[in-house]
Amino acid sequence: MTRTRSHVVGVLLVMTVGVAAQQPASQVQLGILRVPACQPASDPEYGRVATKAIPIGGGPGYMAARKRSYFNALRGPQGQVLRIASTVGSSMLPGDPEGAIIDTHGVTYDGESGPVTITLYMDAYHYAAPKAPAGFTCGAPLATAVPIPPADPFKVTAALVSLAIEHGTKTDVRPIRLDTSTARGYFFDRYALIALQARAAAGAGTPLDPAKPSKELEALGSAVLAYPVSCGSRTIPPTNVELVTAQQVAIARNPAGEPLRGDEALAKAFPGLPVPPGSIGFYFRGAQPAQGKITYAEGCDGSPAEATSTETD
How far apart are CA 120 and CA 218, in angstroms? Predict the structure, then answer.
C-alpha cells in the first residue's frame, strides 16, 4: 500500500537550564544543548522539598529506570557512593494540573561522623536539565544518566485522539489506498479512523468533544476496508486480510474473529465511504504495518487469489 500522507504528533518539551556565572569545563550534550556534566542546584531546596522535586521526567512507564540511573550518577559531598532505601513514599503534588505523584527516597552516604541520610524528592511527570541537590556531587554526567525522556505514550495517545477529532470535525481525511492501480479498498491508520468517526458525527449534528473522547475511540487501532475486484463481467469478493510489520510479524486483529460484513456493520465502521456489496472490514491493533495481503475467493482468469501490497513513505 502506498502512503499518500503522514501524520506527525508534535510533543512540545519546555526545558529549563540554569546558567552559572562561570561555565564548568566539562559539558555534555542534552538534545541540541550543551550543559554542565554536573550542575549544582543554586536553590538549596532543590530536591529537598516536594514542590521542588527533581524533575527527571519519563512518566510512569520509565520512572523506575530513570530514578535508578540518576541515583547511580549522584554522589555524596566527597564522592561517596549512595545507598538508596528500599522503601519509597509517594504523594500527589498539590495544585498540579497533571496530577503528578512525587516519590520520596531516603539517600544515605558515609560521612565523617557516620552515615548521613537525606530525603530526596523525585518527579517523573516533569523534566528539566538534571542538577545535583545542594551538598551532593556527581560520579557521572547527570544529563547522560537522565537525558530528555521519550514521549509519554499516554500523553501522545490523548494528543493524537484530540487532534484527529479536531481535524475530522472540520474537514475530510483521506484514507490510504490499498492499491493505486486497482480499487481494492483502503487502509486506515488510527488517526484517519478516529477522524472518520469525527467527520460523521459532525455531519449528523452531534460533533465529538476533543477534550473528552470516548473510550471506544481511544481503543481504536487501525483498520482495512477491502473491496471486491472486477474480473470481466463478474466480481470476486475478498475473504481475508492480513497485515505484517517490517519484521514480518503478523499484526493481531482487534478483536479476533470474523470480518465485518454487511451494509450496517460496514457503514458504522467506515461512515461516509462507498461500500460495494461483498466488501469486508477488519480492525487491527496499533502496530505500524509494512505489508498487507488480501485473499480473494478465487483468482481472476488464472491469476493468484492473493494480492500483496507494500507500504512506503
Answer: 36
Q: What is the pLDDT of residues 257-291, one digit of tens each?
A: 789 999 899 999 999 898 999 999 999 876 678 78
CA angle at 84 for the pair 133 and 58, rounded to the nearest 5°: 65
Phi then psi for residue 192, to 5 deg, are -65, -35
Angle between helices 153-170 and 59-73 (to 10 degrees): 140
C-alpha cell at 63: 520512572
CA-based max dimension of the chain: 94
Backbone phi, psi, residue 198, to 5°: -65, -40
- Overall pTM surpassing 0.85 (yes/no): no
Is the four-CA dihedral 196, 199, 203, 206 of positive or negative sign? positive
Structural domain boundaries in the chain: 27-150, 154-310
CA distances from 255 to 106, 196, 218, 219, 221 (A): 46, 20, 15, 11, 10
Query: Whole-angstrom Cα distance, residue 106 to residue 306?
Result: 62
Burial class (CB in 10 A: 0-12, 13-18, 19+), 14: exposed
pLDDT tens-digit profile of 152-189?
655 657 777 888 899 899 988 878 888 878 889 999 98
Handedness of CA 71, 76, 78, 80 (dihedral sign): negative
Residues 6+ apart with CB under 8 A from 22: none
Cell of 6: 503522514
For every residue of 170-200, DSSP letters joined together read HS--PPEES-SSS--EEEE-HHHHHHHHHHH
CA angle in degrees (0–180, nearest 5) for 61-67-73: 140
Report which of 195, 187, 194 is spatially closest to residue 167, judged by C-alpha positions: 195
